[in-house]
Structure prediction request, 282 residues.
Amino acid sequence: MKQKDHKKTNVYITDKIHYEGVFTAIKKDGTLYYRASLTHKTRHISLGSHTTPSAAHEAYLEGQRLLHGETAIMDYTSESPLAFEKWVILINFRDNGIYFGTPIYVGQKMFYYYLSPTHVLKFDMDDLFYFASHKIMCRGNHYFVADYGMQVNIASRFNIKNYAVPGRDFRFLNGDSTDFRRENLEITNTYHGVIPEHKNGQYYYTVRIHIVGNYLVGKYATEWEAAIAYNKAIDILRKQGIRKNFIPNYIEGISPSKYADIYTEISISPKLYTISGNNQSD
Prediction:
Protein backbone atom coordinates (compact mmCIF):
# COMPACT_ATOMS: atom_id res chain seq x y z
CA MET A 1 0.00 0.00 0.00
CA LYS A 2 1.38 3.36 -0.97
CA GLN A 3 0.80 6.16 1.51
CA LYS A 4 1.96 9.73 1.24
CA ASP A 5 1.11 12.64 3.48
CA HIS A 6 1.28 15.95 1.59
CA LYS A 7 1.02 18.35 4.52
CA LYS A 8 1.82 21.43 2.44
CA THR A 9 -1.06 20.80 0.07
CA ASN A 10 -3.26 19.20 2.76
CA VAL A 11 -3.89 16.10 0.62
CA TYR A 12 -3.55 12.58 1.99
CA ILE A 13 -2.96 9.85 -0.64
CA THR A 14 -3.42 6.12 -0.11
CA ASP A 15 -3.87 3.48 -2.85
CA LYS A 16 -4.00 6.35 -5.36
CA ILE A 17 -7.05 7.85 -3.58
CA HIS A 18 -6.71 11.56 -2.93
CA TYR A 19 -8.23 12.66 0.38
CA GLU A 20 -8.22 16.42 0.10
CA GLY A 21 -8.34 18.34 3.38
CA VAL A 22 -6.77 15.47 5.36
CA PHE A 23 -3.41 15.05 7.04
CA THR A 24 -2.02 12.57 9.52
CA ALA A 25 -1.05 13.01 13.14
CA ILE A 26 0.34 10.75 15.85
CA LYS A 27 -1.00 10.41 19.40
CA LYS A 28 1.35 10.15 22.37
CA ASP A 29 0.82 6.39 22.43
CA GLY A 30 1.91 6.15 18.78
CA THR A 31 -1.58 5.70 17.32
CA LEU A 32 -2.10 7.19 13.86
CA TYR A 33 -5.16 9.38 13.31
CA TYR A 34 -6.42 11.80 10.68
CA ARG A 35 -7.20 15.47 11.01
CA ALA A 36 -9.47 17.45 8.69
CA SER A 37 -9.04 21.12 7.94
CA LEU A 38 -9.69 23.74 5.29
CA THR A 39 -8.78 27.29 4.46
CA HIS A 40 -11.44 29.91 3.77
CA LYS A 41 -10.81 33.64 3.25
CA THR A 42 -7.18 33.08 4.36
CA ARG A 43 -8.40 31.52 7.63
CA HIS A 44 -7.15 28.00 8.42
CA ILE A 45 -9.94 26.08 10.14
CA SER A 46 -9.57 22.77 11.95
CA LEU A 47 -12.55 20.44 11.49
CA GLY A 48 -11.69 17.74 14.01
CA SER A 49 -9.94 14.38 14.29
CA HIS A 50 -11.01 11.03 12.83
CA THR A 51 -9.94 7.41 12.85
CA THR A 52 -9.96 6.99 9.06
CA PRO A 53 -8.90 9.24 6.16
CA SER A 54 -12.28 8.83 4.50
CA ALA A 55 -14.12 10.10 7.61
CA ALA A 56 -11.79 13.11 7.80
CA HIS A 57 -12.35 13.78 4.11
CA GLU A 58 -16.13 13.71 4.63
CA ALA A 59 -15.73 16.36 7.33
CA TYR A 60 -13.70 18.45 4.90
CA LEU A 61 -16.38 18.13 2.19
CA GLU A 62 -19.11 19.03 4.68
CA GLY A 63 -17.19 22.13 5.75
CA GLN A 64 -16.78 23.24 2.16
CA ARG A 65 -20.47 22.65 1.49
CA LEU A 66 -21.47 24.83 4.45
CA LEU A 67 -19.12 27.65 3.53
CA HIS A 68 -20.22 27.76 -0.11
CA GLY A 69 -23.89 26.83 0.15
CA GLU A 70 -27.10 28.03 1.76
CA THR A 71 -27.49 25.43 4.50
CA ALA A 72 -29.17 26.71 7.68
CA ILE A 73 -28.18 25.98 11.26
CA MET A 74 -31.43 24.13 11.87
CA ASP A 75 -30.62 21.68 9.05
CA TYR A 76 -28.07 19.94 11.26
CA THR A 77 -28.53 16.21 11.87
CA SER A 78 -26.58 13.72 13.96
CA GLU A 79 -25.38 12.06 10.72
CA SER A 80 -23.19 15.05 9.93
CA PRO A 81 -19.43 14.34 10.06
CA LEU A 82 -19.02 17.71 11.82
CA ALA A 83 -19.81 18.48 15.44
CA PHE A 84 -22.79 20.81 15.85
CA GLU A 85 -20.60 23.49 17.41
CA LYS A 86 -18.36 23.56 14.32
CA TRP A 87 -21.46 23.61 12.08
CA VAL A 88 -22.67 26.85 13.72
CA ILE A 89 -19.19 28.40 13.63
CA LEU A 90 -18.83 27.79 9.88
CA ILE A 91 -22.28 29.11 9.00
CA ASN A 92 -21.71 32.27 11.02
CA PHE A 93 -18.34 32.72 9.27
CA ARG A 94 -20.04 32.28 5.90
CA ASP A 95 -22.91 34.70 6.58
CA ASN A 96 -21.20 37.33 8.73
CA GLY A 97 -17.53 37.09 7.77
CA ILE A 98 -16.44 36.74 11.41
CA TYR A 99 -14.85 33.60 12.80
CA PHE A 100 -15.51 32.75 16.45
CA GLY A 101 -14.32 29.70 18.36
CA THR A 102 -17.70 29.23 20.05
CA PRO A 103 -21.11 28.41 18.46
CA ILE A 104 -22.30 31.98 17.96
CA TYR A 105 -24.47 33.31 15.16
CA VAL A 106 -24.64 37.09 14.83
CA GLY A 107 -28.05 38.61 14.13
CA GLN A 108 -29.52 42.11 14.02
CA LYS A 109 -28.41 44.01 17.17
CA MET A 110 -28.07 40.71 19.05
CA PHE A 111 -26.44 37.31 18.77
CA TYR A 112 -27.44 33.71 19.38
CA TYR A 113 -25.38 31.16 21.29
CA TYR A 114 -26.32 27.63 20.19
CA LEU A 115 -26.02 24.89 22.81
CA SER A 116 -27.97 22.57 20.49
CA PRO A 117 -30.24 23.05 17.46
CA THR A 118 -33.18 23.69 19.82
CA HIS A 119 -31.42 25.21 22.85
CA VAL A 120 -30.41 28.77 21.99
CA LEU A 121 -29.41 31.66 24.27
CA LYS A 122 -29.82 35.30 23.21
CA PHE A 123 -27.51 38.14 24.15
CA ASP A 124 -26.85 41.82 23.47
CA MET A 125 -24.03 42.68 21.11
CA ASP A 126 -22.16 44.22 24.08
CA ASP A 127 -21.53 40.65 25.32
CA LEU A 128 -20.33 39.30 21.97
CA PHE A 129 -16.59 39.22 22.48
CA TYR A 130 -16.85 37.87 26.02
CA PHE A 131 -18.83 34.81 24.93
CA ALA A 132 -16.79 34.50 21.74
CA SER A 133 -13.89 33.50 24.02
CA HIS A 134 -15.83 31.75 26.80
CA LYS A 135 -17.58 28.46 26.12
CA ILE A 136 -20.95 28.12 27.86
CA MET A 137 -21.76 24.90 29.71
CA CYS A 138 -25.23 23.97 30.91
CA ARG A 139 -26.34 22.20 34.07
CA GLY A 140 -30.12 22.16 34.36
CA ASN A 141 -31.22 25.78 34.04
CA HIS A 142 -27.83 27.12 35.10
CA TYR A 143 -25.23 28.29 32.60
CA PHE A 144 -21.51 28.48 33.35
CA VAL A 145 -18.25 29.47 31.69
CA ALA A 146 -14.70 28.59 32.67
CA ASP A 147 -12.90 31.73 33.77
CA TYR A 148 -9.38 31.60 35.24
CA GLY A 149 -9.86 27.94 36.07
CA MET A 150 -13.17 28.47 37.88
CA GLN A 151 -16.77 27.82 36.86
CA VAL A 152 -18.56 31.16 36.75
CA ASN A 153 -22.33 31.46 36.49
CA ILE A 154 -23.10 33.68 33.49
CA ALA A 155 -25.95 35.26 35.48
CA SER A 156 -23.34 37.15 37.52
CA ARG A 157 -22.47 39.10 34.37
CA PHE A 158 -25.98 40.55 34.54
CA ASN A 159 -25.90 41.37 38.28
CA ILE A 160 -27.95 38.30 39.16
CA LYS A 161 -26.65 36.73 42.38
CA ASN A 162 -25.96 33.00 42.62
CA TYR A 163 -28.67 32.61 45.25
CA ALA A 164 -31.25 34.51 43.17
CA VAL A 165 -34.61 32.85 42.51
CA PRO A 166 -36.34 33.51 39.15
CA GLY A 167 -39.64 35.31 39.63
CA ARG A 168 -38.63 36.55 43.08
CA ASP A 169 -35.21 38.18 42.73
CA PHE A 170 -35.27 38.71 38.97
CA ARG A 171 -37.45 37.96 35.98
CA PHE A 172 -37.34 37.69 32.21
CA LEU A 173 -39.80 40.32 31.03
CA ASN A 174 -40.86 38.42 27.90
CA GLY A 175 -41.09 35.10 29.75
CA ASP A 176 -38.17 33.60 27.81
CA SER A 177 -35.57 32.29 30.29
CA THR A 178 -33.00 31.92 27.49
CA ASP A 179 -33.13 35.63 26.58
CA PHE A 180 -30.31 37.37 28.48
CA ARG A 181 -30.57 40.69 26.70
CA ARG A 182 -30.45 43.40 29.36
CA GLU A 183 -33.68 44.98 28.15
CA ASN A 184 -35.36 41.65 29.00
CA LEU A 185 -33.96 41.36 32.53
CA GLU A 186 -35.51 42.99 35.57
CA ILE A 187 -33.49 42.67 38.79
CA THR A 188 -35.79 43.03 41.80
CA ASN A 189 -33.34 42.04 44.53
CA THR A 190 -29.59 42.64 44.61
CA TYR A 191 -28.80 41.82 48.24
CA HIS A 192 -27.88 38.61 50.06
CA GLY A 193 -30.54 37.29 52.42
CA VAL A 194 -33.14 39.87 51.39
CA ILE A 195 -36.54 38.86 50.03
CA PRO A 196 -38.91 41.59 48.80
CA GLU A 197 -42.52 40.87 49.71
CA HIS A 198 -45.92 42.45 49.21
CA LYS A 199 -48.95 42.01 51.43
CA ASN A 200 -52.16 44.00 51.91
CA GLY A 201 -50.86 46.79 49.70
CA GLN A 202 -47.64 47.09 51.71
CA TYR A 203 -44.10 46.42 50.47
CA TYR A 204 -41.49 45.20 52.93
CA TYR A 205 -38.29 43.18 53.00
CA THR A 206 -37.81 39.94 54.88
CA VAL A 207 -34.28 38.95 55.88
CA ARG A 208 -33.19 35.37 56.54
CA ILE A 209 -29.73 33.94 57.12
CA HIS A 210 -28.73 30.32 56.59
CA ILE A 211 -26.83 28.45 59.28
CA VAL A 212 -28.40 25.00 59.63
CA GLY A 213 -31.67 25.93 58.04
CA ASN A 214 -32.86 29.50 57.57
CA TYR A 215 -33.17 31.85 60.55
CA LEU A 216 -35.42 34.90 60.42
CA VAL A 217 -33.44 38.09 61.04
CA GLY A 218 -36.42 40.44 60.75
CA LYS A 219 -38.74 42.38 58.47
CA TYR A 220 -37.86 45.90 57.34
CA ALA A 221 -39.46 48.82 55.54
CA THR A 222 -36.62 49.55 53.12
CA GLU A 223 -34.15 47.51 51.09
CA TRP A 224 -31.22 49.38 52.64
CA GLU A 225 -32.35 48.55 56.16
CA ALA A 226 -32.78 44.90 55.20
CA ALA A 227 -29.34 44.68 53.60
CA ILE A 228 -27.69 46.27 56.64
CA ALA A 229 -29.66 44.02 58.99
CA TYR A 230 -28.19 41.02 57.19
CA ASN A 231 -24.69 42.44 57.67
CA LYS A 232 -25.37 43.02 61.36
CA ALA A 233 -26.62 39.45 61.70
CA ILE A 234 -23.33 38.21 60.19
CA ASP A 235 -21.33 40.21 62.74
CA ILE A 236 -23.40 38.85 65.62
CA LEU A 237 -23.02 35.24 64.47
CA ARG A 238 -19.27 35.58 63.97
CA LYS A 239 -18.87 36.90 67.51
CA GLN A 240 -20.66 33.77 68.68
CA GLY A 241 -18.29 31.43 66.90
CA ILE A 242 -20.18 30.73 63.67
CA ARG A 243 -17.49 30.14 61.06
CA LYS A 244 -19.57 30.04 57.86
CA ASN A 245 -18.29 32.08 54.92
CA PHE A 246 -21.11 34.63 54.83
CA ILE A 247 -20.93 37.27 52.09
CA PRO A 248 -21.88 40.71 53.44
CA ASN A 249 -23.91 43.14 51.38
CA TYR A 250 -22.25 46.11 49.75
CA ILE A 251 -24.66 49.02 49.72
CA GLU A 252 -24.07 51.70 47.11
CA GLY A 253 -25.28 55.29 47.42
CA ILE A 254 -25.18 55.53 51.21
CA SER A 255 -22.69 57.51 53.29
CA PRO A 256 -20.64 55.80 56.02
CA SER A 257 -22.37 57.88 58.71
CA LYS A 258 -25.84 56.96 57.41
CA TYR A 259 -24.83 53.30 57.28
CA ALA A 260 -23.56 53.48 60.88
CA ASP A 261 -26.79 55.10 62.09
CA ILE A 262 -28.98 52.41 60.47
CA TYR A 263 -26.65 49.64 61.71
CA THR A 264 -26.88 50.91 65.30
CA GLU A 265 -30.63 51.43 65.33
CA ILE A 266 -31.75 48.38 63.35
CA SER A 267 -33.29 45.60 65.42
CA ILE A 268 -32.34 41.93 65.01
CA SER A 269 -34.27 38.84 66.08
CA PRO A 270 -33.23 37.92 69.65
CA LYS A 271 -32.95 34.26 68.59
CA LEU A 272 -29.73 35.03 66.72
CA TYR A 273 -28.04 35.91 70.02
CA THR A 274 -28.70 32.40 71.30
CA ILE A 275 -26.94 30.57 68.43
CA SER A 276 -23.47 29.22 69.20
CA GLY A 277 -20.69 27.75 67.11
CA ASN A 278 -22.18 24.31 67.75
CA ASN A 279 -25.21 25.21 65.63
CA GLN A 280 -23.49 25.02 62.25
CA SER A 281 -22.68 22.56 59.51
CA ASP A 282 -19.34 22.13 57.77
